[in-house]
Amino acid sequence: MTFLGVVHSSGRDGFTFAALDDEHKLLALATGKLQDVLAFAAGQGTCVAAINLPARPNQGVFRQLAAQQQLFSNIAEEKWMDMRLAEYELRQQGIHVSATPSSIVDCPHWMQRGFTLFAQLQTLGYEPYPTEGAERQWLETNSEAGFWYLLGLKPFEPRSLEGRLQRQLILFERDLPVTDPLRFFEEVTRHKLLSGVLPLHGILSSVELDALLAAEVAWLTKFHPDRLIKFGAPEEGQIYLVAGDTRASR
Question: 2-57+104-152+214-242 has which CATH code?
Answer without folding.
Answer: 3.30.420
